[in-house]
Design goal:
Number of domains: 2
Largest sheet: 5 strands, mixed
CATH architecture of the largest domain: Roll
Strand content: 35-45%
Number of helices: 3
Distance between the termini: 33 Å
CATH superfamily of the largest domain: 2,3-Dihydroxybiphenyl 1,2-Dioxygenase, domain 1
Structural class: alpha+beta
Radius of gyration: 16 Å
Number of strands: 9
Shape: globular
Helix content: 10-25%
Length: 145
């Protein structure tokens, strides 16, 4: 049985930029460390894995995002690197925010791009998707109730 969902991991090419993005979103830096060794190679099914990992935490302490920068082996490109919202696989990570417009404006300073438009879902949410670090889709929701 599952106890909890622990975290989502994002492989990034620019760790400081990704940290700045998620700090701007309101996440807290929980810790950073280099990780390598035979156990990491076995876990990943790769040889000579050397990574820098930073753990970010939501202000409520329940959600975590692991930002991973591979030093070795080299990153592998996937095509398209910035997959559209209807691509197979992990689609997005979503965060509830207090002010959608302000959050997007602050994230734009860190390279975020609005994918579609701001929309309202009934009288419950104002929503949007932005393109975040490593091309991931970050969904943002402002509760209206």
């Amino acid at each position: 049985m599952i106890i909890r969902m622990d975290h989502v991991s994002i492989i990034v090419d620019d760790l400081p930029a990704a940290i700045a993005f998620f700090k701007t979103l309101g996440m807290e830096l929980k810790g950073s460390m280099p990780v390598e060794g035979e156990w990491v190679d076995r876990l990943n099914g790769l040889k000579d894995v050397k990574v820098n990992i930073t753990m970010m935490r939501t202000p409520d302490g329940n959600g975590k995002v692991e930002l991973t920068k591979f030093r070795s082996p080299e990153l592998v490109d996937i095509n398209p690197a910035t997959a559209p919202p209807n691509a197979l696989g992990l689609r997005q990570i979503m965060f509830a925010v207090d002010d959608l417009t302000d959050t997007v404006e602050r994230l734009r300073a860190h390279g975020a791009e609005l994918i579609g438009e701001f929309v309202q879902y009934g009288d419950m949410y104002k929503l949007c998707y932005v393109r975040g670090p490593a091309g991931i889709i970050v969904a943002l929701a402002e509760e209206l109730f």
